[in-house]
Every structure is written in C-alpha cells, then in structure tokens.
Amino acid sequence: TAVLMPDRTALSMEIALGVAISQYPTGTFLTATADRGKEFACYATLEATHNLHVYFADPYSSWQRGSNENANGLLREFHPKGTDFTQVEDEELAHSLDLMNHRPRKCLGWKTAHESFAEELSHLV
Question: Bridge-partner residues for 105, per DSSP?
C-alpha cells in the first residue's frame, strides 16, 4: 500500500497513515520504522491513534530499514529519483506497486510480497 502525500508535513503523514491502516484489519500494523524526516514529528499521535510503536533508525543507518530501502529501490525502477510524485497518476502508481508486490523475492522464499502479506493477514481474520 502507498498513499500519495501532498507534502512532507506531519499532518499529511497522519492522514496518509490513517488511510493506509484503515484498509486492513485491526492489529495488522503493530510497528513502524521511520527515518528522522520532519513528517514523523507526529509520531506520538500516530502511536496513540493507531496503537502502534514507532521506531526511529539511527542517522545514516539505512540498513536498519532494509526492507524499506529495498522497496524504495524497486519503486525507482518505475519512477527514477527526482520524480515529482504530484505528477504521477494514482493508477500509474497503483500499477507500479502491483508489479512490485507480485514479484517473487528471494528473502521471502520466492513468494511474492502479496502472498506473504496475505498469509499473515489470514492469521488475523
């Protein structure tokens, strides 16, 4: 899931996370690992509102958010660095995410992210 944000403000992050979380059963999201961007200044509100714990990676320690960095790299195959996402249509982003989520991954035993996530969700329902 990805939600386009109009800017990198804490309010936009609160809204985007709320939209993303609302699409799944309660308990799907327990933690979030963030960089130290200004959009996460609202982390205490996110924790209280969505009953999750926000962890922050150490500065210059991208390996602490390895899955996120890998996903960013895959997204860059479709939308190169410098892409203005305000100019990307929702359908185009959705198509990119669909291709990414249905791509087999070695780290998941050659399952797709979609298959692995669906399997985890089946334990919540």
Answer: 111
pLDDT of residue 39 exceeding 80: yes
Buried b (16+ CB within 10 A) or exposed e, 4-22: ebeeeebebbbebbeeebe
* Per-residue pLDDT reduced to its tens digit, 99-110: 999 999 998 999
- Per-residue pLDDT tens digits for 46-61: 999 999 999 999 998 9
Half-sphere exposure of 28 (CA within 13 A, CB side): 17
Tell me the C-alpha distance between 122 and 125, whole Å: 5
Cβ count near 57 (within 10 Å): 17
Amino acid at 51: N
